[in-house]
TrEMBL record:
It comes from the Bacteria. Residues 13-295 form the NADP-dependent oxidoreductase domain. One of its GO terms (molecular function) is oxidoreductase activity. It comes from Paracoccus denitrificans (strain Pd 1222). InterPro entries: AKR (IPR020471), Aldo-Keto_reductase (IPR050791), NAD(P)_OxRdtase_dom_sf (IPR036812), NADP_OxRdtase_dom (IPR023210). This is Aldo/keto reductase. Keywords: Oxidoreductase, Plasmid.
Length: 319
């Protein structure tokens, strides 16, 4: 697999997100998750992304029991489970969360540590200072920020170099193209794209609206509620037809489009099962292919916001 730079290491161009191991998209079990991790390594994936809030530690515990310290690993802190939902970026809390994550992961060091959401009343320069101490102490290899504005990145990077910025980015979520991807490229910061397959919308088959109430957060997500859900299925149908015509898998083509937006971009698709990894075969897209995909799915085509209002509370908006 193609390699891309993430901090001081080269990693496979496609990483792996583990949020679904914590049950965010429906029920799962540890044995299935472990088999999925093994299949990801067999597929050439070497960067794995988790967070302390995924299943309230479940995802980290699974990775810890998996026991692969040779692989590049990122985790996160900063979101305080509610209700009400809150964020904390103070140094004591960051340190406490890191120690708890390291225990679950069965590691003494994590390669990349993110602030999952920024606390508005703490200067980001202070957060960067905290993270720099953790780097110097050997606890983390580098630090990242998630769902921030380009201006925040520049301020943090001036205090202590940022390794990566993580934001949602896919064919139907294009906001990072309005400044964040460019700022990362300029500063030499990796851009890690989460949900590059639209939370299953660009999966092997069209989604059905049978999300489990109270378990799968898509059940109340604006893009997955009616009438938006049906409108989005209809909008994506011509893209599915194009993929079938060209012999591409739908997930593979969606990932190829994300990768084509910059050589500093590392998408981290997620799945609960090893079976879906077969669909992540990335075709070689030429300029004509990309133009045709963007004609079918132009920027802004999605119906509905990507988050509900309660989930947008600590996402920085800059356009």
């Amino acid at each position: 697999m193609e390699q891309r730079r993430l901090g001081n290491r080269n990693v496979a161009a496609i990483g792996f997100g583990t949020m679904s191991f914590g049950g965010m998209f429906g029920a799962t079990d540890e044995a299935t998750s472990l088999a999925c991790l093994d299949a990801a390594v067999d597929a050439g994936i070497g960067h794995f992304d988790t967070a302390n809030i995924y299943g309230m530690g479940v995802s980290e515990q699974i990775i810890g029991r998996w026991g692969r310290p040779d692989l590049h690993l990122a985790t996160k802190c900063g979101i305080v489970n509610g209700p009400p939902r809150a964020v904390r970026n103070d140094e004591p809390y960051i340190r406490q969360c890191l120690e708890e994550s390291l225990r679950r992961l069965k590691r003494e060091h994590v390669d990349l540590y993110y602030i999952h959401r920024r606390q508005p009343d703490i200067p980001v320069e202070d957060v960067a200072g905290t993270m720099s101490k953790l780097v110097q102490e050997g606890k983390i290899g580098g630090y990242g920020l998630s769902e921030i504005a380009p201006s925040t990145l520049r301020r943090a990077h001036a205090e202590y170099p940022v390794t990566a910025v993580q934001s949602e980015f896919s064919l139907w979520t294009r906001l990072p193209q309005l400044g964040l991807i460019q700022a990362c490229r300029e500063l030499g910061v990796a851009f890690v794209a989460f949900s590059p397959l639209g939370r299953g919308m660009f999966g092997r088959e069209p989604l059905r609206r049978d999300f489990r109430a109270g378990i799968d957060f898509r059940e109340t997500n604006p893009r997955f509620t009616e009438p938006n859900f049906s409108a989005n299925l209809a909008a994506i149908a011509p893209f599915r037809a194009l993929c079938a015509q060209r012999g591409w898998t739908v997930p593979g083509a969606a990932l190829a489009w994300v990768l084509a937006q910059g050589d500093h971009i590392v998408p981290i698709p997620a799945t609960r099962t090893a079976d879906h990894l077969r669909d992540w075969q990335v075709p070689d897209l030429d300029a004509a292919d990309i133009a045709e995909i963007e004609r079918i799915l132009p920027a802004g085509f999605a119906h509905g916001d990507r988050y509900g209002d309660h989930q947008m509370a600590f996402v920085e908006r800059y356009c």
